[in-house]
Amino acid sequence: MTNEKNNQPSASEDAHSELDSSQVKSGEGYKQDTKDQKGSDKESGNDNQDNDEKRKGPGKKPLIILGIVVVVMVVVSLVWWLMTKDQISTDDAFTEGDAVTIAPKIAGYVTNLAVKDNQLVKKGDLLVEIDPRDATAQRDQAQAQLGLAVAQLHQAQAQYDLAKVQYPAQLAQAKAQQTRAEANLLNATADFRRQRGVDPRATTQQNIDTSNAQVRSATADLENAKAQVQVAAQVQLNIRQAETNVEARQQQVEQAKAQLETATLNLSYAQVRAPFDGYVTKRNVQVGTLVQAGTSLFSVVSKDIWIAANYKESQLERMRPGNKVEITVDAFPDIKLHGHVDSIQQGTGSRFSAFPAENATGNYVKIVQRVPVKIVIDSGLDENHHLPLGLSVEPTVTVE
User: H helices then E strands: how many in the chain?
Assistant: First the structure.
């Protein structure tokens, strides 16, 4: 019993032994924890060092990138300046062209309308036809007047031809009658003298009186013959009068011809035709409309267009007629037009406006003036994309 008690450990000894083992284990755990903590501290130190290196490394890269960007921008700006230093552009530019208002020259009802809105027409194409009956009647009347004038001219020419023969013959006849009257007077005078010179017993008073009467009659016939000669002597005057009548009739014929031409022209005005190739716009007429002379029917816009660009006065120093121009159109970005400067207006736009500015002393404000420049298009136009008038464009002029 005693030995068994001695062999069995006591509770206090077991407690001490367990405490010692736990302390040993705890010591080993502490050592292990210490090692782990040291390892973690070492790793955290390495991480902090890596983070510091990372922070120090990227700090130089943004400066390098910024420097590269600045250099690239400077180079690009320099190249752009070198490329565009001789180019002058403006966005204050528009397409321009001839737009003619079509109006009839005679009054009447519209009987035929041969075009539609925005239709392309060629020079000489029929646009509108006006009732031609009134103009036709006037033409026929003028033609009749011409025929009458021609007939009167022929009559005057016949009279002139007759006068050239008749009046000289009348003069010759008058002179012959004068010569015969003179001869009769000589015979009567001689007979009267014989009657007076003979012995009164050899003649009678009746014979003397008869001879005297014959002398007076012959004298009267001679005076009459002389008067006829004087009348017939106006041969040239009479012929000239007949010739003048012919000239007057000729003028009447010319007048009648002019009236006929006018009537024929008025008849042609019944058909309104296109003055040039272009597009019909602003149509305000229908079939049956009564139009007056000068009434606006529509407009025809020419196919030939140009550019009216308003450049600043400070941009005109080196601009000259003939400078090459590149043009872009806002409505058709794919179209690139090429042209040249045709002319520079000798005056700013405000100078020729309806109400020019009055720069009186006290209220003057200096503003940049703009000068219209006409640019003619040389190439680039597409038949399928006709440019209407008033489109916004941007011309760029290359100056020397």
Answer: 6, 13
* pLDDT higher than threshold 90 for residue 175: no
What is the number of other CB atoms lying within 10 angstroms of the CB of residue 117?
10
Paired tokens of 173? 């006849």
Q: Where would I find the beta strands (DSSP E) of 147-283? A: 271-273, 278-281
Can you tell me the distance from the alpha carbon of 392 to that of 93, in angstroms, rounded to the nearest whole number? 6
Judge whether 334 and 314 are in contact, CB under 8 Å. no
| H helices present in 57-132, as ranges | 61-84
CA distance to 185, 191, 363, per residue, from 209 (Å): 15, 11, 121
Contact 289, 128 (CB under 8 A): no
Produce one character per residue of 241-266: b if its CB has 16 or more CB atoms within 10 Å, e if not: ebbebbeebbebbeebbebbeebbeb
CA-CA distance, 139 to 257, in Å (whole number)?
A: 11
Whether pLDDT at 206 is above 90: no
> Average pLDDT of the chain?
79
What is this structure's pTM?
0.57
Q: What are phi and psi of 393, to 5 degrees?
A: -135, 165
